[in-house]
Amino acid sequence: MRKIISLYIYVEVCIFAVMLMGNGELLAKSKPELNDISEYSLSDLLNVKVQVASKSEETVEEAPSSVTVFTAADIQNMGISNIEELLNFAPGFQTTLDIEQGTANRISSRGRTTALSESILFLINGQRLNDLYTGGISIINRLIAVENIKQVEIIRGPGSALYGSNAFLGVVNIVTETDKNNVTVKVGNMNSRDIAINFSKKISNSLNISAFAKAFSDNGYNYKNITDVFGQTGDTHDPVKGMDAFLTLKFKNLTIDARHMERSREDFLVFGGLANHINTEKTKQSYISSNYSGNIGKNLKIDIGASYMEDHWNALALVLPEGTEVAPGFIIMNPGYSGPFLNSNNLNIHADFTYNFLKINATLIGGISYMRTGITHVANLFNYDPVSLEYMGNITEFEGEDSFNNEIYRNVFGLYVQGKIVPIKRLTITAGLRYDHYNDFGGTLNPRAAIIYNTPFGGKFKAMFGAAFRAPNFLELYDKNNPVDFGNADLNPEKINTFEFAYIHNFKKAQLVLTYFHNDIDNMIILGQIPYDPRNILGVPGFYNYEGEGGTSGLEFEFKYSPIKSLMVYGTYTHMLHLTNEDVSHNFASLVLNYTMKKWNINLKGIFRDKIKNLPSQESYTLIDGTV
């Protein structure tokens, strides 16, 4: 395994006075909320509130799901640079490099991995990030920034009973910080440069504003003697640059969020071909969302919101090297370049309510939503005519029947309800149900239930069941003129039933969590045999619903230990008992040691992965690094 040595110089400056406001006030210093781990006991850390499991505040122990949470202090102390890296320290999750789409990340959960991470739903403050075309975040949303995060809440397991599609094997909700003023500067090897700024200001008693901006770039790793899919050998690298902007306005009960991000990658093996200075991939995502939250009387809370999001994907890569014989006796004299151009959008409207039955210690939540999402512009980019193979020189857009997908919309209606009751002192019961209807494949019903029992001796038992689904994405439904795959408009959604049993035990200075899970998966969407279709002129494989049953099962172990106030030890271990596909490790683990000494913080962390059967050339490995 190649050794990688990385050095970062990290500087953070709290802004006490950046600019004068109209009333002459200076920016307020951020309140210390879990920013210095030495100021908090283990009990404080275990009682961090999350909302992802039931859309209402509760501790991880109280949540009717298997939940892991990372605070801003955890992320900073560990030296984490993006969300994908952070997920390696959550039980059941693995993040690996996938070069198929140009150095993307492939995120797996509980034994199942897919190229585009479409089985995990990603949210920022409840706003969906998964794109329509792939259904995942591996293409559009790469290297999600962490500098403006308050905490990251992770459901390990299904979440469709609350969130609908893509909450199949997990939900990652990123909660942003709205009371923070600082500048973060990072420089390091590979000529890496990052700068991030957080700004917040209380304009009046009813108006607050917070903003975040980040820019970063690096020259990438140098790869020597790389051989691509065409047999060409050469050197390359994988530079990346990007920017993020986030704005939050809070006026009384109204919150408005706006986000824009851009990513740009070059060279390496985009789509498998080696072509420095030609291979490029650029993505953008922007959204604006508004939410009104208010109380009606003592018992009822309502949330009404709407959001609009746009995605953009543009890539170009070598697909035919110079001298390729594309037909008998027909050899191209110039390299052939091709790539996708795609724009899509998403309109989402929702209304939710929470009603507390105070006399019987019960809570009822529910909601309704409507989503209209579609591809607005799609084209294949070529410098050759795809029909006549005439060389055109310039890159040209080919739309309509010559594009790689369809300009089409999808309408989704959702309705859910969930109840939670404490019938006796030590027992909590949660049950819920969600119905989603799609105009392209119909409806799907997904229930959930959880029983939590607090033992008299400091332990807690959780028994959980959840059903979930993943709607086929537009890549799987409508792809055409693609040298990799051919779409199938008759696909049905993937479905999963998950059973989980967890035991949590709190000691004076430690917490132990053991979880068993079993997933039964039906209608798995796979890339299979070549379909007979006159439109499949390239003769590539198509997508099908697998008729047999699939699934995974395993054990997750998680612990926190604080022998002294300044030292925290956090570890995870996952053992897969059963895998349908041998594309992930059977055993993987993580360990974090954090020590605080006055104004210094010292962190040592590592991950372990054992062998993957489907990658016989890759040995098991351990990666260890430290942050001061």
What does this structure look like?
This protein has 628 residues and is mainly beta. Helices cover 4% and strands 56% of the residues. The strands form 7 sheets. The chain has a 22-stranded antiparallel sheet that branches. Strands 4-9-10-7-8 form a 5-stranded mixed sheet.
Question: What are the SSEs and their pairings?
Answer:
Elements: E1 8-14, H1 42-46, E2 49-50, E3 58-59, E4 67-71, H2 72-78, H3 83-86, E5 93-98, E6 104-109, E7 120-124, E8 127-128, E9 149-156, H4 160-163, E10 170-176, E11 182-188, E12 192-202, E13 207-218, E14 222-227, E15 233-237, E16 240-251, E17 254-266, E18 280-296, E19 300-320, E20 325-327, E21 330-331, E22 336-357, E23 362-384, E24 391-398, E25 409-424, E26 427-438, E27 442-454, E28 459-470, H5 474-478, E29 494-506, E30 510-522, E31 525-527, E32 543-545, E33 550-561, E34 567-578, E35 587-597, E36 600-609, E37 621-627
Parallel strand pairs: 7-10
Antiparallel strand pairs: 1-11, 2-3, 4-9, 5-6, 7-8, 9-10, 11-12, 12-13, 13-16, 14-15, 16-17, 17-18, 18-19, 19-22, 20-21, 22-23, 23-24, 23-25, 25-26, 26-27, 27-28, 28-29, 29-30, 30-33, 31-32, 33-34, 34-35, 35-36, 36-37
